[in-house]
Specification:
By secondary structure, the protein is an alpha/beta fold. The chain contains six helices and ten strands; from the N terminus they run βαβαβαβββαβαβββα.
Length: 197
């Protein structure tokens, strides 16, 4: 089975299409404070024709329930991704998957489902300790994030053996500006790495 690949922080329809065409499995839309932030209405508009087998992920950080409900009603995501502790205060319908974010150096994941494992700050290209990540990758379905790029994703996959990988800043030509070529290169490298192992 090939590695699951998520392209995060997409803001333009051309880059949504680039991710779909490259073979990405999930596309993340950021609703937290960030250079990659989009409105729920825009995220819905640029992802309206994403095939149903590709997950549309609402990426948030410590949202209020009201903020989440706005995203839920206007964007209608397949997945909500936010820090693990946030879910206690959010009303998430059964139709939406929950991907808790566990940050390196904090509590060890206690999950059997899909989750994100990354550094202290999202979208900053902060690489986690892969050897440490490898010791917990068997817990649930880890999507490894932070500092991954086309040039190192094969090594990360070989060391950590995660369920999936997540990229944002390394597929940009400038902060918040995705690059279709970089997206294709990353997905290709991630999928090829799995096939060759």
């Amino acid at each position: 089975m090939s590695v699951f690949v998520k392209i995060c922080g997409v803001r333009k329809s051309e880059h949504v299409h680039a991710a779909v065409d490259a073979g990405a499995d999930a596309i993340g839309f950021v609703f937290a404070e960030s250079v990659r932030r989009v409105t729920p209405a825009k995220a819905n508009a640029i992802s309206a024709d994403v095939p149903s087998h590709i997950k549309r992920v609402a990426v948030m950080l410590h949202p209020t329930n009201a903020e989440w409900q706005e995203v839920l009603s206007e964007f209608v995501p397949d997945v909500l991704q936010t820090d693990a502790e946030d879910f206690a205060t959010l009303d998430v319908p059964a139709s939406v998957e929950q991907w808790p974010v566990y940050r390196e150096g904090r509590d060890q994941p206690e999950v059997r489902d899909t989750y994100i494992y990354e550094g202290q700050k999202s979208g900053k290209g902060e690489t986690v300790d892969w050897s440490r990540a490898a010791t917990i990758a068997g817990e649930g379905r880890m999507i490894l994030a932070g500092g991954l790029a086309a040039t190192n994703v094969a090594e990360a996959i070989a060391v950590v053996r995660p369920f999936g990988v997540d990229v944002s800043s390394a597929v940009e030509s400038a902060p918040g500006q995705k690059d279709a070529l970089f997206i294709r290169e990353f997905v290709s490298a991630a999928k090829a790495a799995e096939r060759s192992s």
